[in-house]
């Protein structure tokens, strides 16, 4: 049986889990409640799609996995921080995340805010001190991830998402919101390996960049489809939340069939951008299909 990227997922998820375990303070270290909540936010399940994208892009660009552990772990910490904030009563007011109580339900709202606030700077510390990376690479990764999670990236996208509740946006406006809210960090996941691999030929750098941007939008459209078609027990969060909050979504605007069609279009476009890499891009192709075809 050929060894596929799917066969290596367990290896990579264990790898990033070990890195995260070594990075996060022990729950026995004071302040214990805060550290316990931080670990709960990071280790409460999840598919680790963003770290997997880091490692898959690394395989495509022939970057050793040990050089990618720091960016993979840092990006997952940023993702965990964002989810804790997204679930807060002031945001989406969710009770479930990955089939378990959200951090503010498991602990309390103040502890959830502080846990998220601690995860974000920890991510940048990981990038800034990664011993496997050259100082200039560390600096570029810090800058790139900061842009991805700032007001012109993930945080800005969340602001647009909140402002759009109860309003009618067109398809282009929704995709722009998706590109910031979700796509920016997914794009950063792919681009992290490219920064470590530099210098890349300009054609390869442009292709990797375009792939990351395209598949990031597809990821959020698929998430919104699952909110309509999925079951709470399967998707791990309350189904139908987008409609309850009157969020501006692609399926809400154009219906599920058209949203699925757009997902397929973005998948085809993202795969096309990898053509010049040949078989080396097989891991990224597998993950792109998984993102669009997943059931949760």
Structure in words:
By secondary structure, the protein is mainly α. The chain has a single domain, classed as Farnesyl Diphosphate Synthase, CATH 1.10.600. It is built from 15 helices and two strands. It has helices spanning 5-23, 32-42, 49-61, 69-87, 103-106, 109-128, 135-149, 154-163, 171-197, 202-229, 232-235, 241-244, 250-254, 256-272, 282-293; strands at residues 96-97, 100-101. A two-stranded antiparallel ribbon has the order 1-2. Helix 10 packs antiparallel against helix 14, helix 10 (202-229) runs parallel beside helix 15 and helix 14 (256-272) packs antiparallel against helix 15 (282-293). The two termini are 27 Å apart.
Kindly summarize this structure in a few lines.
The chain is mainly α and 296 residues long.
Strand order of the largest sheet: 1-2
CATH fold naming = Farnesyl Diphosphate Synthase
Which whole number gives the mean pLDDT?
94
Number of domains: 1
Can you name the CATH architecture?
Orthogonal Bundle
Distance between termini?
27 Å
> pLDDT under 50 segments (min length 5)?
none
User: Helix- and strand-based class?
Assistant: mainly alpha
**Strands, count:** 2
Superfamily at the CATH H level? Answer: Farnesyl Diphosphate Synthase
Query: In DSSP terms, counting alpha (H) and pi (I) runs of 4 or more, how many helices?
Result: 15
Largest sheet: 2 strands, antiparallel
Cα-atom radius of gyration: 18 Å
């Amino acid at each position: 049986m050929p060894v596929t990227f799917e066969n290596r997922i367990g290896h990579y998820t264990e790898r990033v889990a070990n890195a995260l375990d070594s990075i996060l303070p022990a729950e026995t270290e004071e302040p214990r409640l805060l550290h316990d909540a931080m670990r709960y936010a990071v280790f409460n399940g999840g598919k680790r799609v963003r770290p997997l994208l880091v490692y898959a892009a690394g395989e495509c660009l022939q970057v050793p996995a040990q050089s990618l552990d720091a960016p993979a772990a840092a990006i997952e910490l940023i993702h965990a921080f964002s989810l804790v904030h997204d679930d807060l009563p002031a945001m989406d007011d969710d009770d479930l995340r990955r089939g378990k109580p959200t951090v503010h339900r498991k602990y309390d709202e103040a502890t959830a805010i502080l846990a998220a606030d601690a995860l974000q700077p920890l991510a940048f510390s990981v990038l800034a001190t990664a011993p496997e990376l050259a100082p200039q690479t560390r600096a570029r990764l810090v800058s790139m991830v900061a842009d991805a999670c700032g007001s012109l990236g993930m945080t800005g996208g969340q602001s647009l998402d909140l402002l759009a509740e109860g309003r009618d946006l067109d398809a282009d406006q929704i995709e722009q919101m998706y590109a910031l809210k979700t796509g920016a960090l997914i794009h950063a996941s792919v681009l992290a390996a490219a920064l470590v691999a530099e210098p890349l030929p300009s054609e390869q750098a442009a292709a990797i960049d375009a792939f990351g941007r395209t598949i990031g939008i597809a990821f959020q459209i698929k998430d919104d489809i699952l909110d309509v078609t999925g079951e709470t027990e399967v998707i791990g969060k309350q189904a139908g939340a987008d409609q309850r909050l009157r969020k501006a979504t692609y399926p809400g605007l154009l219906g599920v069939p058209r949203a699925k069609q757009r997902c397929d279009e973005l998948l085809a476009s993202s795969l096309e951008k990898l053509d010049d890499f040949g078989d080396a891009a097989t891991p990224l192709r597998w993950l792109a299909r998984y993102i669009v075809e997943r059931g949760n």
